[in-house]
């Protein structure tokens, strides 16, 4: 998912660069977006410059694929906003409508668009007007007048055809004022600190600011033909195909004013190259590095890490990385890069005394030694598991809640049960794989029992673990298909290490002998798969502080530990040679 978002951001930034250089550039993005359909990546790719034409298709006709009655859109055509209104789209259902509802998946239906890329006809230019003496504008009398005094509102939208709006200095409109009609004139001190959006529904619209002081005006679309009295507008911004070159500016003294200038963001402090140890995070407040001379609010993107508001967090794999950070004010942008070197740290073996008899071994000998270390533990009853999970999986930010496996949701401890909205006890090693049920030992071992949303638990069922599938209810990042379940990235390693533990803890002579294999559809056999995928997940999602704390708490209840949380390298030492 992170890689899809990174790729989408690179494409979006590429489109932004093109539009910055040429706002009238024609851009089309076409493809089978498949995995993007169910993630935020498609929205990132669309950004503020592109329109997804598939959304213009009527709801009942909006599908390109069918599988067992489940219709989805997997194929998309995005066009730059300046092409959207003149683009026609159609989906030809020559596959989906002729597929057996209970049969295999259909081939994809063709998605077709008609684009008009021809330049518009232009008239021969006439004699140039004398500078400072444009044609006198035709006076317009508004049909309605609005005089707002002491108005307090979250937002204000007017769609009257022709209006005069007066806003006094005591009025406050938090999210700004939007006009969608054909003619408007503006008066009053209230617009000094109010953002104004002009988004007319019809072409040829005229806006007269009457010399009123305006902090910021956003023009959206191509329907504004003339702007009058704009000499006191501090800043214009053009979006969704709007272009200042297509608008005639005439001010109150009948001269064409200079178009307001937007200053791009600037780098105020250069980034320093970073060096950290593996497992460590870097946090950078991006407003310490970028600023905007116009006071515009900046938004940020990065080729690595995660951004929350203006904070970039980097937790990268071992090796060398180049990080590119882009700051934009919505019109202009600037990109700066720096390097991050993540160095390996020779880890000490945690709990060295506890694992002393296993140190230095590998393969079956290591597996046997770890079994002897962890097998003699206190076994809880199935009812005692409820109370134990309320301790081991407690939300560190809310002691009244537990954190649910898979979805990551924080839910009340008292919502344990079997109804929709409750959480129940998920056997990560499916209890039917070996038919141990809820018996003491494997059925009540809280090293692999986790609180989970009832419906997510039901969706997982007793499936083996593998990559692929479609999202499930209450866990968008969970995936399942007919023979496997994929955990979200944030807990892939957790799942793998719980299954590693079970395969070592329960051996011949125990209630059941559990083993890992590289298959799915293991059914009631005492096997769980797929080991190759679990090893990948183990590497992809390293041990977290949460797992370490949970391991410590479980030792207080059961008296044993999960070796693969304490010493992650042991998983490869035991199963790596088998693949």
UniProtKB/TrEMBL annotation:
Give the source's domain of life in one word: Eukaryota
Q: Does the keyword Cytoplasm apply?
A: no
Acidic residues bias (residue ranges): 120-133
> What are the UniProt keywords, alphabetically?
Hydrolase, Nuclease
UniProt-listed SUPFAM superfamilies? DNase I-like, His-Me finger endonucleases
Which Pfam family is an annotated match for this chain, by its short name?
A: Endonuclease_1
Q: What's one GO MF term for it? A: hydrolase activity
Biological process according to GO: DNA catabolic process
Q: Region annotation Disordered: residue ranges?
A: 120-143
Its recorded name reads Endonuclease/exonuclease/phosphatase domain-containing protein
Organism annotation: Batrachochytrium dendrobatidis (strain JAM81 / FGSC 10211) (Frog chytrid fungus)
């Amino acid at each position: 998912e992170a890689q899809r978002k990174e790729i989408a951001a690179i494409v979006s930034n590429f489109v932004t660069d093109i539009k910055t250089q040429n706002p009238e550039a024609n851009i089309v993005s076409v493809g089978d977006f498949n995995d993007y359909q169910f993630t935020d990546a498609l929205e990132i790719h669309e950004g503020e410059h592109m329109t997804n034409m598939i959304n213009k298709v009527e709801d009942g006709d909006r599908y390109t694929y069918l599988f067992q009655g489940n219709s989805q859109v997997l194929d998309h055509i995005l066009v730059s906003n300046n092409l959207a209104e003149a683009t026609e789209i159609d989906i030809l259902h020559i596959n989906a409508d002729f597929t057996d509802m209970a049969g295999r998946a259909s081939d994809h239906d063709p998605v077709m668009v008609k684009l008009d890329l021809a330049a518009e006809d232009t008239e021969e230019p006439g004699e140039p007007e004398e500078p400072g003496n444009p044609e006198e504008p035709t006076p317009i009398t508004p049909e309605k007048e609005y005089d707002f005094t002491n108005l307090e509102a979250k937002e204000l939208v007017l769609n009257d055809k022709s209006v005069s709006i007066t806003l006094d200095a005591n009025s406050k409109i938090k999210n700004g004022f939007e006009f969608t009609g054909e003619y408007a004139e503006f008066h009053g001190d209230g617009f000094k600190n109010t953002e104004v959006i002009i988004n007319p529904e019809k072409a040829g619209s005229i806006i007269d600011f009457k010399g009123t002081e305006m902090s910021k005006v956003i023009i959206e679309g191509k329907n504004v033909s003339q702007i009058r009295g704009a000499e006191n507008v501090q800043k214009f911004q053009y979006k969704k195909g709007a272009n200042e070159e297509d608008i005639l500016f005439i001010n109150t003294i009948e001269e064409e004013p200079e178009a307001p200038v937007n200053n791009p963001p600037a780098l105020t402090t250069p980034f320093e190259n970073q060096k950290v140890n593996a497992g460590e995070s870097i946090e950078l407040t991006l407003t310490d590095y970028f600023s905007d001379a116009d006071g515009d609010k900046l938004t940020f993107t990065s080729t690595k890490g995660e951004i929350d508001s203006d904070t970039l967090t980097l937790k990268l794999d071992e090796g060398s990385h180049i990080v590119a950070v882009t700051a934009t004010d919505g019109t202009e942008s600037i990109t700066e890069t720096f390097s991050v070197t993540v160095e390996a740290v020779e880890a000490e073996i945690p709990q060295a005394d506890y694992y002393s008899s296993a140190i230095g071994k590998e393969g079956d000998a290591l597996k046997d030694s770890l079994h002897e270390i962890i097998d003699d533990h206190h076994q809880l009853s199935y009812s005692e598991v409820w109370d134990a999970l309320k301790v081991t999986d407690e939300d560190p930010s809310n002691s009244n809640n537990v954190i649910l496996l898979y979805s990551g949701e924080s839910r009340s401890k008292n919502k344990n049960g079997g109804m929709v909205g409750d959480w129940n006890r998920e056997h990560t090693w499916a209890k039917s794989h070996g038919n141990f049920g809820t018996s003491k030992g494997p059925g009540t071992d809280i090293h692999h029992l986790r609180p989970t949303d009832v419906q997510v638990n039901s969706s997982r069922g007793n499936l083996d673990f593998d990559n692929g599938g479609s999202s499930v209810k209450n866990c968008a990042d969970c995936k399942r298909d007919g023979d496997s379940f994929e955990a979200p990235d944030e807990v892939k390693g957790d799942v793998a290490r719980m299954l590693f533990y079970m395969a070592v803890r329960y051996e011949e002579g125990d209630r059941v002998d559990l083993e890992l294999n590289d298959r799915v559809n293991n059914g009631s056999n005492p096997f769980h798969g797929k080991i190759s995928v679990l090893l990948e997940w183990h590497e992809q999602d390293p041990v977290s502080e949460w797992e370490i704390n949970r391991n410590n708490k479980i030792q207080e209840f059961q008296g044993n530990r999960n070796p693969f949380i304490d010493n992650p390298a042991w998983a490869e030492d035991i199963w790596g040679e088998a693949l």
